[in-house]
Design brief:
By secondary structure, the chain is α/β, with parallel strands linked by helices. It has helices spanning about 50-55, 80-85, 105-115, 120-135, 150-160, 180-195, 210-215, 230-235, 240-249; strands spanning about 10-20, 25-35, 40-45, 65-70, 75, 90-95, 170, 200-205, 215-220, 225-230. Strand 4 and strand 5 (about 75) form a beta hairpin. The structure holds adenosine-5'-triphosphate. Pfam families: ABC_tran.
């Protein structure tokens, strides 16, 4: 099923992707296209397969069948060295932030750049400053994760994900551990990153307000399939009751 129709030169394209865990089919024959600069929400009930679908985009989960393309490259054909290089195009953030606890905010942001081994110390330091500024955390460069609030930790995670200048940012329930006010601020930061840097966002959430606040497109995931896809502005006018039911279930 092609849910966003046929987009010329989509930035992300999944073709007939399936993934099972043992005998359980978590994602079933999903096809999806995401245009460059898009903000797409994947919504649905717990266990519907949203996170698995997201992780198939950067091959954190390898599909059993189907093909995955990002920025014109078929990831499902790449060997491990090429895949590592291709993944620089794809940043990711998680519900529980996944920061290195024994490293400062600046060291966390520098981590992917150090791993990459291409930039000089001075270049890394400049990029770290830039990325912490993007998320409004320059003054926390020397703080450790334990000294930061949940919202600040997620901002460090965003800065770290952006450091290698990805084209795509995958967000797996990025606000589920945050209160309402912090959620609003974080979603504004993500919208700003999309607008200023043109980074394409794909965000998994079970909260419809998150989709309404941030996304332009939404896809409803149910039993491992995309069962509905819609433009969020239309849904706000009351055209998608299914989405509302699913998200609030
Ligand atoms: N590594 C794994 N091994 C076994 N089963 C898994 C694994 N990852 C996911 N699953 C199962 O696949 C199904 C889909 O999981 P997934 O995390 O993609 O759902 P989700 O829609 O993101 O739900 P949630 O919001 O609860 O995370 C669930 O039933 C889950 O238990």
């Amino acid at each position: 099923m092609s849910v966003i129709g046929s987009i010329p030169h989509p930035l992300i394209r999944l073709d007939g992707v399936s993934k099972s865990f043992g005998s359980f089919a978590a994602v079933r024959d999903v096809s999806l296209q995401v245009r460059e600069g898009e903000i797409l929400g994947l919504i649905g009930r717990s266990g519907a397969g949203k996170s698995t679908l997201l992780r198939l985009i950067n091959l954190l989960e390898r599909p059993d069948t189907g093909r995955v393309f990002v920025a014109g490259q078929e990831l499902t054909r790449l060997g491990s060295t090429e895949l590592r290089a291709a993944r620089r195009q794809i940043g990711m953030i998680f519900q529980q932030f996944n920061l290195l606890q024994n490293a400062t905010a600046a060291e966390n942001v520098a981590f992917p750049l150090r791993l990459d081994g291409k930039a000089s110390r001075a270049e890394i330091a400049a990029r770290v400053d830039e990325c912490l500024a993007l998320v409004g955390l320059q003054d926390k460069a020397a703080s450790y994760p334990a000294q930061l609030s949940g919202g600040q930790k997620q901002r460090v995670a965003i800065a770290r994900a952006l450091a290698p200048r990805p084209a795509v940012l995958l967000c797996d329930e990025p606000t589920s551990a945050l209160d309402a006010e912090t959620t609003r601020e974080l979603l504004a930061t993500l919208a700003d990153i999309n607008a200023r840097l043109g980074v394409t966002l794909v965000i998994v959430t079970h909260e419809l307000p998150v989709v309404q606040a941030l996304c332009r497109q939404a896809a409803v995931v149910e039993n491992g399939r995309i069962v509905e896809q819609f433009a969020v502005a239309e849904a706000a006018q009351g055209q998608s009751t299914l989405a509302r039911e699913v998200a609030y279930a």
